[in-house]
Structure formats: structure tokens, C-alpha cells
Design goal:
The chain is of the alpha/beta class and 269 residues long. It has a single domain, classed as Metallo-beta-lactamase, Chain A, CATH 3.60.15. Helices cover 20% and strands 26% of the residues. It binds zinc ion (3 copies). The site of one zinc ion has 4 residues, from loops. One of its GO terms (molecular function) is lyase activity. InterPro entries: Metallo-B-lactamas, RibonucZ/Hydroxyglut_hydro.
Length: 269
């Protein structure tokens, strides 16, 4: 599996769009891995997870060919993951030389908004409803949406994605996993886990995880043999409010054998 991480910030970006706090000023000055955009990832060039407002930026900076994307999966409809207006650029008149249909998979809120926003559909876009804990064949991957603890009025999802010999846990934006998700996970294997660390050293771990919740999650997955000795755990989706630069995050997570994701990171198995 080739997992291309396109964005690693929380909804405001890092440095945040309009912010002049000392951490955002420092990130602007340092650049490099301290520049974080809104989140998305691509699996083997063909399956994309989430479609943030920074997508054109990702296409330009990472030299992406989005025409190869056959399936688009949505975790939830917060704007940093979900900007369906730009999906109109995938339709005739704006996109030449692309294959149809584009398959869009998501919860009912995501599909309803896509249906409302996309100007043409039928043969160009197919909408597929994802139900938690049901395994769906998507291209040559097996995708099981799991429940997150993120927004009490939306069925927010994280994904277990098995493709070839590799299983990915895409954990964005999750909070501490609900019991049903733990029970499902404890019967499976994960080679790459990407975990939400929006809250950094803040106390809160509901809606979004913090450092301690990430470490506890990794330990519990290891104790249940979901993670093997070869498995890799990455943290992502950082808010400027935590005041941690890339190097600070590395210092926190290195002793726990957890890697800090950054924009443009490519993970290969
Ligand atoms: Zn988010
Ligand atoms: Zn700031
Ligand atoms: Zn969210």
C-alpha cells in the first residue's frame, strides 16, 4: 500500500488562516514540516479519503493526478474534510480526459450535501451510503466504517481499510473510540494506524484525542494484538491551540515509538 498524507492540520490550518499567536508566527518563520494544511490522504493513487478546501493546493504542491481517483470516501462533513463545491470541477466542462463515474462513499449527511451541491449526477457521480460496522468492497479494498466519538449529531466515521496484505486504520476525527469500535477492532489486525491528536497536551480527549489518549490507544491495540511489532502508528490533525511545533511533537512521541505525520508524507508497505 502507498498512503500519501496530504494534510495534517486541524480545521484552522497551521499556521492558522488569520492567526498571529506566537505558535503560528513561529510556524510561519520556520516553514517546512510546520506548515500543515487541511486533511486528506490518497491510497494507491485511486482511493481518496476526504476532500478538504485545500485540495487544489495539494494538487499543485504534491503534483497529484486526481483524475486517477475512482473512489472518494468521507469521514464526516466538517468543512476541513468536506468541500463538495469543488467536486463540480470533476464534471464535464471542467475536467477533460477523466473517467466516469466517480464513486462517492459517505454517511447520509455527506451524500445528501453532495447530491445538493453537485450540478450533474447520474452517469457522472454515484453515491454510496456507508453504514458503520458493515464491510464494503470499494475497488480492490475492503472498507469497514467504524464509529467515532466526534459530533453527537452526525454519524462520524473512521475507517479500517484492507487492501492486498495491508490494513490501515484511518482515525480522523475520532475522540476516544466508542466501545462498539473497540470491540470490532479487537478482532482485527492493523499495519498502519493514523490517529487524531488535535488536542495535544490539552486535557480533553472526547471529540478529538489528546497525547495521552493516543498513547493509551496504541497500548491497548498492542495488548489486543491488533498491532504487531511491525505495525506503525502515526499522529496527525494538530490544532494551533496546542502550541506544539513539529520538533516538539517528535520529542513527545518518539519515546512511545509513534511517528509524527507531516504534509506530503508517503508511507509505503
Ligand atoms: Zn477535522
Ligand atoms: Zn495561532
Ligand atoms: Zn471534524
Amino acid at each position: 500500500m502507498k498512503l500519501h498524507i496530504l494534510g495534517t492540520a486541524a480545521s484552522e490550518g497551521f499556521p492558522a488562516l488569520f492567526c498571529r499567536c506566537e505558535h503560528c508566527l513561529k510556524a510561519r518563520q520556520l516553514g517546512g514540516k510546520n506548515i500543515r494544511t487541511r486533511t486528506s490522504a490518497i491510497i494507491d493513487d485511486t482511493i481518496k479519503i476526504d476532500f478538504p478546501p485545500d485540495t487544489l493546493h495539494h494538487v499543485l504542491c504534491d503534483a497529484l493526478d486526481l483524475s486517477k481517483i475512482e473512489h472518494l470516501l468521507f469521514t464526516h462533513t466538517h468543512h476541513d474534510h468536506f468541500y463538495p463545491e469543488d467536486l463540480n470541477m470533476r464534471l464535464p466542462g471542467y475536467a477533460h480526459g477523466v473517467k466516469y463515474p466517480l464513486h462517492i462513499h459517505g454517511n447520509d449527511a455527506a451524500l445528501a450535501k453532495c447530491s445538493q451541491t453537485l450540478k450533474k449526477q447520474n452517469e457522472h457521480v454515484k453515491l454510496h451510503l456507508l453504514k458503520p460496522f458493515q464491510t464494503h468492497q470499494i475497488g480492490d479494498a475492503l472498507v469497514t466504517p467504524l464509529l467515532a466519538d466526534h459530533n453527537q449529531i452526525e454519524t462520524c466515521l473512521l475507517f479500517h481499510i484492507k487492501k492486498g496484505n495491508t490494513s490501515l486504520l484511518y482515525g480522523h476525527d475520532t475522540g476516544w473510540f466508542p466501545d462498539e469500535t473497540w470491540i470490532w477492532l479487537e478482532n482485527t489486525k492493523v499495519d498502519i494506524a493514523l490517529l487524531d491528536c488535535t488536542n495535544g497536551n490539552l486535557q480533553e480527549y472526547r471529540n478529538h484525542m489528546n497525547v495521552n489518549a493516543v498513547i493509551e490507544t496504541k497500548n491497548r491495540l498492542q495488548q489486543s494484538n491488533v498491532l504487531s511489532d511491525q505495525s506503525k502508528v502515526y499522529v496527525t490533525h494538530f490544532s494551533h491551540n496546542i502550541g506544539l511545533l513539529h520538533e516538539d511533537l517528535i520529542q513527545i512521541f518518539q519515546p512511545h515509538d509513534i511517528e509524527v505525520a507531516y504534509d506530503g508524507l508517503i508511507i509505503k508497505t
